[in-house]
């Protein structure tokens, strides 16, 4: 009996110990599950209340780092800029700023030039980085992309420098010529010669100022406010009349052809100026006794039918290097010829802005010593008008009205194809 009692007591004690050990193991397991892991530390739960909402509405790229330099929160813009990779801040100067701020609590700001990821371009990404402490453990990094702002500032700086140079040339010439007239007051022939030169420089200065005004107008005004259907053949006729004298002086033949009775929708004055600039350039850069052709046609495009107006010359042509820059302000393929013809270097820039503001584009084909073809592509009147009316209706519609934008969209009607007369195209370069 004593032996059996001892065995029973030992078994009871073993059972109690097993139960205690199992309970302790269960409690330890629960505590381990509730303990924050390294991964759970890097979630939105560790952010102070409201910070996540604020970061989501910021325009800047935002990155929040913990005491181990791990990324707790990062905006999509931060990933797009390549600031965060693999859960880590990938820019060493910014990482060092974050460590310094975490150590002393001071706010730091610096501008950096970062290489672009995944592109073969050599230009850098300009950013402004600002680091500040966020609570006792976290650091907030805000990064602003300054690339576009720097590009615009560079364009503005170059534009001011170019304008100053272009204005200085005729103004300086007028000053020198006026002194020459005063010194040659007793020589009528010299006075007449210098006065003629003064007229040429005054005309060049007037043209430059007028084209600056035109460029400013096409950049700032909305051409569709006073839009109307414009006949393409009338625009072509105006462009030819504008250049008839220069073409006659050089014995250049101008020929118009293509499809008749085409219409575009836009500002008549701007469209006439754009096409006139293309024809004037073709005449100015063509040798004597050559041809300049202007042809219009209708083409199908994804956004609807467009009108193409092509201006072809047999001039000096444009190199591949120059074709990338000819639409820049004040850029000239042949500066000497531009000086001789009074060119300002703003004509093609005006054409580019007019085309873009009317929902179109301008392209160029050219080969050196073979001529050039500039093509102005614009939406046809019906397509462009319907698009403008839909945009106006969307702007006037109250937010949340719940109207279907497609419900009021009408299909533009086009006249019968037999009404379009096909004219023989001019014999110019293909």
From TrEMBL:
What this protein catalyses is: ATP + protein L-histidine = ADP + protein N-phospho-L-histidine
Which Gene Ontology terms of cellular component type are present? plasma membrane
Q: What PROSITE patterns would the database entry show?
A: HIS_KIN (PS50109)
Q: Where is this region: Disordered?
A: 377-430
An annotated GO BP: cellular response to phosphate starvation
The record's subcellular location field reads: Cell membrane
List the EC numbers from the record. Answer: 2.7.13.3
Using the record's annotation, list all stretches that form the Histidine kinase domain: 162-382
Top-rank taxon of the source lineage equals: Bacteria
Q: Recite the UniProt keywords alphabetically.
A: ATP-binding, Cell membrane, Kinase, Membrane, Nucleotide-binding, Phosphoprotein, Transferase, Transmembrane, Transmembrane helix, Two-component regulatory system
| Top-level EC class as recorded in UniProt | transferase
Record protein name field: Sensor-like histidine kinase SenX3
Its taxonomic path starts at: Bacteria, Bacillati, Actinomycetota, Actinomycetes, Kitasatosporales
């Amino acid at each position: 009996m004593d032996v059996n009692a001892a065995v029973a007591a030992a078994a009871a004690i073993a059972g109690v110990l097993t139960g205690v050990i199992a309970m302790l193991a269960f409690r330890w397991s629960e505590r381990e599950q509730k303990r924050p892991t390294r991964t759970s530390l890097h979630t939105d739960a560790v952010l102070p209340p409201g910070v996540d909402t604020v970061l989501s509405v910021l325009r800047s790229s935002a990155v929040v780092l913990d005491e181990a330099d791990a990324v707790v929160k990062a905006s999509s813009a931060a990933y797009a800029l390549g600031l965060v990779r693999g859960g880590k801040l990938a820019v060493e100067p910014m990482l060092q700023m974050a460590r310094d701020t975490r150590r002393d609590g001071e706010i730091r700001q610096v501008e950096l030039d970062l290489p672009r990821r995944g592109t073969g371009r050599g230009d850098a990404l300009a950013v402004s980085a600002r680091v500040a402490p966020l609570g006792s453990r976290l650091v907030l990094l805000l990064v602003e992309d300054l690339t576009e702002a720097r590009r615009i500032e560079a364009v503005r700086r170059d534009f001011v420098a170019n304008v100053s140079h272009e204005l200085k040339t005729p103004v300086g010439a007028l000053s020198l010529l006026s002194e020459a007239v005063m010194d040659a007051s007793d020589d009528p022939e010299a006075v007449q010669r210098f006065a003629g030169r003064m007229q040429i420089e005054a005309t060049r200065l007037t043209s430059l100022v007028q084209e600056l005004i035109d460029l400013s107008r096409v950049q700032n005004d909305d051409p569709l406010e006073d839009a109307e259907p414009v006949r393409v053949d009338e625009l072509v006729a105006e462009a030819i009349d504008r250049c008839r004298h220069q073409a006659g002086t050089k014995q250049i033949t101008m020929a118009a052809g293509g499809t008749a009775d085409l219409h575009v929708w836009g500002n008549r004055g701007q469209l006439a100026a754009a096409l006139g600039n293309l024809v004037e350039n073709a005449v100015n850069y063509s040798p004597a006794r050559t041809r300049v052709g202007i042809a219009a046609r209708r083409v199908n495009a994804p956004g609807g039918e467009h009108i193409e107006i092509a201006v072809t010359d047999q001039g000096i042509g444009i190199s591949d290097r120059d074709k990338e820059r000819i639409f820049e302000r004040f850029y000239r393929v042949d500066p000497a010829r531009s000086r001789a013809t009074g060119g300002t270097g703003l004509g093609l820039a005006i054409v580019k802005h007019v085309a873009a503001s009317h929902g179109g584009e301008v392209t160029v084909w050219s080969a050196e010593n073979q001529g050039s073809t500039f093509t102005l592509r614009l939406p046809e009147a019906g397509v462009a008008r319907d698009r403008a009316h839909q945009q106006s209706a969307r702007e006037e519609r109250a937010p949340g009205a719940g109207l279907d934008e497609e419900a009021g969209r009408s299909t533009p009607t086009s006249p019968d194809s037999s009404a379009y007369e096909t004219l023989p195209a001019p014999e110019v370069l293909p």
